[in-house]
Write a structure and sequence with these properties.
Blueprint lengths: L2 H11 L7 H8 L3 H13 L3 E5 L3 E6 L6 H7 L6 E8 L2 H8 L7 E8 L17 E7 L9 H19 L4 E3 L3 E4 L2 E12 L4 E10 L16 H5 L5 H20 L4 H9 L7 E6 L2 E10 L5 E4 L5 E4 L3 E4 H5 L5
Parallel strand pairs: 3-4
Antiparallel strand pairs: 1-2, 4-5, 5-9, 6-7, 7-8, 8-9, 10-11, 10-14, 11-12, 12-13
Helix pairs in contact: 1-3, 1-4, 2-3, 6-8, 6-9
Amino acid sequence: MDITIKVLKILLENPHKRLSGQYISEKLGVSRNAVWKAVEILRKEGYQIDGVTNKGYSLKKIPTDINSYYLELSLGSFWQRVIVEKEVESTNKLMKELGNSLPDKSVLIASRQWGGIGRLGRSWSSPEGGLWFSLLLKPQLPMEELPLITLTMAAAMWEGLYNHLGIEVKIKWPNDIIWDGKKLAGILTGVKGDMDKVDYLIVGIGINVNNPIHPELKGIGLSLKDVVKKEVNLNYLLIEILNCIQKYYQLFLTDKREDILIINKEQSTLLGKRIIISSFKGKEEGFAKDIGNDGSLIIEDDNKQIRKVFSGDVSLKEWYKNSNTN
């Protein structure tokens, strides 16, 4: 473990206490000068560390922006590899390039994306202040079980946001997190494999947190900062969400998926409402009846025929009529 991380660990384990450089150096078996250098590195990273001569150091505040030192100390062993980048074109694109060389359950986080992509190839505005990350997962599953993975992530995000901020968001099947009719977050899942097995999944997650919303998107999107009326620490929020993803992904893998479906149904923005589905076949209307155990949206068309939808862009008919987007 890097000396800087070791110093941070001691400071985090002793909140509100002032620890002398001598105490830390003896605890770690390093020189006092090495401790001082580590503290200076942490300060440059954005940590507020109070230092008083002959009295020692006290950690007052961790950075609001994503910090690799804090994540390394705070995430459990479930996540095998965590990569933090300042800026990338797209975390999904980079993860795809690295997919064969990284272990199962890897996480790639970027402070900013300059070419983020959402569903149907739409651009995703990803300035600094948001949470933009991708997961690499290698489940031993057949391809037909994958539609439920996006709902698994949606359930985890719902719980993570509730646990950390006390807000109850809504889920727009299959991949959008909604507050007051506006988009807070999105999930984009890609897969490499064949019908017999999955080589790996890449799950991209984008959450508007402290970042400004592009003027053209203010009618349909907002940030968590706007909801809770304060700046949100990205490290705390990411750790909570990753912990919830770990929980729900393990339920998914062990075929204990009731809670995943319950959250998606109870928090759905679509069920019981008339919707419009856009796909390569065009647009069609229907009535959203239920979410199937396989992750499909079950709809009833105007001829009272029931069928399953596994993909497509879904909008509420009422919302669609008043929007220029679909």
